[in-house]
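Re: the request from the purification team.
They wanted to know what the chain is likely to look like in 3D before they choose a buffer screen. I agreed to run a prediction and write the result into the notebook, where they can find it.
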Amino acid sequence: MALAPPDEAKDELADALRPAYQAHPRMRWNRIEDWHVTLLFLGELPATTVPLLCAPLAALAAARPPLSLALRGGGHFDERVLWSGIDGDVAGLHQLGADVRAAVREQGVPFQDRLLRPHLTLARARRDDTASVVRAAAGLDGFTGREWRTDRLHLVASNFGRGPGPIRYQDVAAWPFTGPFTGP
């Protein structure tokens, strides 16, 4: 389950990343159209799981107001994964993540219950080039993106581990947040 920043917010971050794209061409950069904020990673699931999740996730999204978020700064996981941080209604984001986990758990779908660390993954380093991730993350230190409202909860699938090339993501389903917005 994920949230997708609007194109304007992604373009703003891509502009801030332009020096890193040029300085670190060996990194495996995620495509901008694939950028998303993961709320819950389910791993490999049979296609029969999707119908189980649609109704409860649609109901969850319909009851929730949009969140007000922004992309901010950068960092890395284990000097291998470059990410941008999330700012704004982070408490609401954590609550949404907990609600998504509860809805999935109620359907009996197994998943590894990891702590939500809100971020947007940008790139991965090759094993022999981890210094690039550290330098690219430092290049985002002063980045603060525009505030945006989440519009949909997305069920996303990837081709991770299925052959060479970059990881590709696609929406399997998406549901609008239609609860009353109470933010600024």
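For the purification team: The chain has one domain: 2-176.
Please add any questions underneath this entry.
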